[in-house]
Amino acid sequence: MKAWVMRSPHEITGYPAADGVFQGPVYWLDHEPTQPAAKGSADEELAAFQEAVEAAAGDIRALSLLSPAPAADLLEVQISWLEDPELLLPVRQRIQAGQAAANAWRSEIEGHASAIDAGAFADIRDIEQRVLNFLVKGKRFAPPKGAVLAGEDISPTQFLETDWSEGGAILLERGSALSHAAILARGRGVPMIVGAGSLARDCKTVLVDGASGRCVLDPDSEQLSLAPSASSPAATSFRHGSARKQFELLLNINSLDEFSAIQSDCCDGIGLVRSEFLFGSAAAVPDEHAQANAYSSIVKWAKGKPVAIRLFDLGGDKTSFGLETSSAGTSANMRGIHFLLRNRDVLIAQLRALLQASKFGDLRILLPMVSEPEQLSQARHLLFDLTPDRQTLPALGVMVEVPEVARHPNRYGDADFFALGTNDLTRSITGRTRNISRATELSQSERTELFELITCVVNYGRKAGKAVHLCGDLASDLSMLDDLLELGLHAFSVPPLKISDFSAVRQQI
Amino acid sequence: MNDWVNGSAVISSGLGLHARPSVRLTKLAKSFQSHVEVMAANGDGWVNAKSIVKVMRLKANSGIALNVRARGEDSAAAVAAIVAFVHRDFDEGLGHALSA
Questions:
Q1: Best A84, A112, A287, A323 residue to mutate vs chain B (most B CBs within 10 Å)
Q2: Fewer beta carbons within 10 Å, N or C terminal of chain A?
Q3: Are the CB atoms for B61 and B18 separated by under 8 Å?
Q4: ipTM here
């Protein structure tokens, strides 16, 4: 339910996905042209096609020069497609037969979709889009700095390709506050609104208030300030008279530049490093050396405080570093540790890099999307084999993201600690994949089920002496804090942006 | 008219002939003047080994025999090179993607 009433025709409300206020010019994300580009003669279309293919290949070549060898290897797949006469000739024949270049290109590429592994075809769709961008718009995906990116949805790659150094915001007609792009936006402090409904494409400037989900299209000077957001910490009312228990405050980290503005004494450690996001939109698995450098810099920053680094959560709709994620990759059980155990060279390199970084402090390892006790013991054995002196093994923890694991944590008694990943737990409970935007959107029964699952894990942790912390989006929803403390949770991992709010609450205790 | 030179090798590389080795295969084929074709034993027919689009469409998985044939001056060398390439697991050794 949208609780807020529209105040003016220019004001619309969506769901808050990342806090912050920003105003700027709109950059439309839409891939498809709003109206078909005028079709030229066959010769003109052939020439336009040739130019677009060369421009797209040139971009990829430029990208591959800047990339390490394995990434360049994958970009070469894309270049090879753009150079293959078996692909280009049929397109030219279609154009000569009267088709517009864009249609001919799209039909020809899509004709290969069913015959090529779905994971690999994602890379082919990328070249399809690059060429189309040149054909239709004559430009690359390069939003100006300081813009509001608006449109139907945004991919994690588009987020990573955007230069946020001068601020910016995201306004989506659909999208979800639980999407990976939203997680990145919260980590980077980019205000983001999802589910805003259809947006008039003629608007030029937008004022976005990510905390309330409100935005103003083409604001005139009088509308420049929105009322204070109802979810700001000052307005959050807590239960009166309840003696709140103290809790540990941990950080969620998605990128290395998130450290620049904060010191490790603001928190008790790092509860979750989403390692797959640390390396930007790398087209290949980062090598062991690059990984060790990245992990070491985090562990050193923490100055002895615990740092839980989650192994690559690849597959599904996540970043996949160009690895083949297979058509079954969209289901949860082909993600996370399951995927890594099947791509053992990737897993081994990451564990080696983590072991190197563990020399610099209290590094702990989190296994993503665990669904079988066997996965924990296999990872444990591998880690043991890779540890040089076989004595100082880093602590190994289980991400609880599957209801079955939450119901039977005792089957994972070999784990040293547990981290509740409520984003995926919530998805499983509700059966919804993309359309839940905040905890208050859960029905009463869904909320009860989620709390029961959390309680199972918390109770087991208390009995077995294992630490449990919460690191999903729910953790940073201050309005949930009292309920969660009551369940017996004492450790919350939140994005850097939320640290000051939580510190303020802690000081009141 | 030259006759086809034939060869065959069973794919044992875990991921099969996926995108990266497909590029390597086409590059290897292009290094020969001969017309080179490949066919997955479970597939539809011979395809141009110098075309990435055709090779990726093979979806040749591990355990499947990849047949190779070439026609031209250096056909014997081309077939031998591709058979050896399959036997070397497409040069996808452990750590290939990881040691930049």
A1: A84
A2: N
A3: no
A4: 0.89
